[in-house]
Design goal:
The chain is α/β, with parallel strands linked by helices and 402 residues long. 44% of the residues lie in helices and 17% in strands. Helix 3 crosses helix 13. It starts with 14 loop residues before the first strand and ends with a helix. The structure holds pyridoxal-5'-phosphate.
Length: 402
C-alpha cells in the first residue's frame, strides 16, 4: 500500500484539515480506536500487503485494464478519453476493493461477523462476497421498501450466504437501515466489524477505505504511462460518498499538472431535494459520526437527496473530499440525470461498454471536457462499475435508445 498517501493532510485524530474526526459515543470510540491501532500496524506489515495482493490478483481479477474509448472520441473530437475498467473487477464494481480489505482486517481482529446496511444493495453484495471468501458471517440491514425494489441484489446476497435483516420502521429505507445496523453493532461489538461502504464514517474508516481503493489510481497511473508515455491531463470520477473517486485521485494528488474532477449527481436540478450534489451545495455539518459537507435543510437536519443513480444519493461526502474542495486541489461539478443517461447510451454503442449509471456521470463530464480540450490531451475516467444492474430500470423508463 502507498504509505505516503496524504500523510500531510491527515492528523492522528483522523482530521483532514477541519473535516473528519469521530463524533461518536465513548463506548464506540473505544472500539474504533482499537480498529485504528490494529490497522495502523497491519497496513505496514508485509504479510497483510502480500495477502491483499494475492486476493486482488487471483480472486478479484486485478489489475483491471485501462481502455481508450475510441468510439467516444469519434463523437466528441478533442481530447482522448481513457477508461479505468472497474466494471471488470469481480462483482462488477470498485466496492469489492475495500470490502476485501475490511474483511481481511476483520479476520486479523478475530471477528466472526461482518455487518452493514445497504440501500440499493451494491455494498451488501460486495460485502457478502467478501464474507463468503473469508468464511465469515454476514448480516445486512436493508429497508423493506428497498428489499422490494432491489430483488436481484437481495437474491444475490442470499445466494452468497448473507443474512438479511428487513427494517420495518419509518420510511423503511437507507436511513432507517443505518440506524438498525448501528444498534445491532452496539449489541455485539466484540464479534462484529461494521464495514462502512465508502470513504465516510468516523476515523479510521475514511482513510482506511481510501487506502484500500488507492489500488485503482496506482494501477491506472502505470497503465497511462504504458499507453501514452505520460501522465493524464485530467482525471474524472463520480462522487457519492467518494470512494472510487479518492481511489483514483490518490495517485495524482501530488502531480500538479493533472487536473482532478469530482462529478456529483445534479439529478433533476439544483433545488434542494432534487439532487445529491453535496460538495457543490452542501454546508459544514456532522453526520453519521464525522464532520464534512452535508446537504442540509434550514434547520440543519440532513436534506432529502435524489439521483437516478442510487449509488450516488448520499447527503454527505467523505471528509477528505471536503478538504480537497477547500484546498482547491479537486474541482467538484455536477451533471444531471439526463446528461448521465445520454452518456450511458453513448458509451454502450460507441465502445461496447454498458456503464453503471453512477459511472455514466463521470463519462458525461468527460464528454464535456473533451470538447474543450485539445486533441493531444488525455482524460482518464474512472468507470466505477458495469451497468447490468441498471438495464431493466433504464429500458423500462426510456427504451433501448435515446
Ligand atoms: C456505490 C457506487 C458508487 C458510489 O460510491 P463512491 O463511494 O462515491 O465511489 C459509484 N459507482 C458505482 C458503480 C457504485 O456501485
Amino acid at each position: 500500500m502507498n504509505n505516503n498517501l496524504n500523510k500531510q493532510n491527515l492528523n492522528e485524530e483522523g482530521f483532514f484539515g477541519t473535516y473528519g474526526g469521530s463524533f461518536i459515543p465513548a463506548e464506540l470510540k473505544k472500539e474504533t480506536d482499537k480498529i485504528a491501532a490494529v490497522y495502523k500496524e497491519l497496513k505496514n506489515s508485509e504479510e497483510f500487503i502480500k495477502e491483499l495482493s494475492y486476493i486482488r490478483k487471483h480472486y478479484q481479477g486485478r489489475p483491471t485494464p485501462v481502455t481508450l474509448a475510441k468510439g467516444l472520441n469519434k463523437i466528441t473530437g478533442g481530447a482522448k478519453i481513457y477508461l479505468k475498467r472497474e466494471d471488470l473487477n469481480h462483482t462488477g464494481a470498485h466496492k469489492l476493493n475495500h470490502c476485501m480489505g475490511e474483511a481481511l482486517l476483520a479476520k486479523k481482529l478475530g471477528k466472526k461477523k461482518l455487518l452493514a446496511e445497504t440501500g440499493a444493495g451494491q455494498h451488501g453484495v460486495a460485502l457478502a462476497t467478501a464474507a463468503a471468501y473469508f468464511g465469515l458471517e454476514c448480516e445486512i440491514h436493508m429497508g423493506e421498501t428497498d428489499i422490494k425494489k432491489e430483488r436481484p441484489n437481495v437474491i444475490r446476497m442470499k445466494l452468497l450466504g448473507a443474512k438479511i435483516v428487513p427494517v420495518t420502521f419509518g420510511q423503511k429505507s437507507l436511513k432507517e437501515a443505518v440506524d438498525s445496523a448501528f444498534q445491532a453493532y452496539m449489541r455485539d461489538l466484540d464479534n462484529t466489524l461494521y464495514c462502512i461502504g465508502s470513504v465516510v464514517g468516523p476515523h479510521p474508516f475514511p482513510s482506511m477505505v481510501r487506502d484500500f481503493q488507492s489500488i485503482i489510481g496506482a494501477e491506472a497511473k502505470e497503465q497511462m504511462f504504458e499507453l501514452t508515455g505520460r501522465l493524464p491531463d485530467a482525471v474524472a470520477a463520480c462522487v457519492g460518498g467518494g470512494s472510487n473517486a479518492i481511489g483514483i485521485f490518490s495517485a495524482f494528488l501530488n502531480d500538479k499538472t493533472v487536473k482532478l474532477y469530482g462529478v456529483e449527481p445534479l439529478g433533476k436540478g439544483c433545488a434542494l431535494g432534487q439532487h445529491a450534489a453535496t460538495a457543490c451545495y452542501g454546508k459544514d455539518g456532522v453526520l453519521h459520526g464525522f464532520k464534512s459537507l452535508v446537504l442540509q435543510n434550514d434547520d440543519g437536519s440532513p436534506a432529502k437527496v435524489y439521483s437516478i443513480a442510487s449509488g450516488l444519493d448520499s447527503p454527505a461526502i467523505g471528509p477528505e473530499h471536503a478538504y480537497l474542495k477547500a484546498s482547491g486541489r479537486v474541482k467538484y461539478d455536477a451533471v444531471t440525470d439526463e446528461e448521465a443517461l445520454k452518456a450511458f447510451y453513448a458509451l454502450c454503442k460507441s465502445d461496447g461498454i454498458i456503464p453503471a449509471l453512477e459511472s455514466a456521470h463521470a463519462v458525461a463530464y468527460a464528454l464535456k471536457l473533451a470538447k474543450i480540450m485539445p486533441e493531444d490531451k488525455n482524460i482518464l475516467v474512472n468507470l466505477s462499475g458495469r451497468g447490468d444492474k441498471d438495464i431493466d430500470f433504464i429500458t423500462e423508463h426510456y427504451g433501448t435508445e435515446i
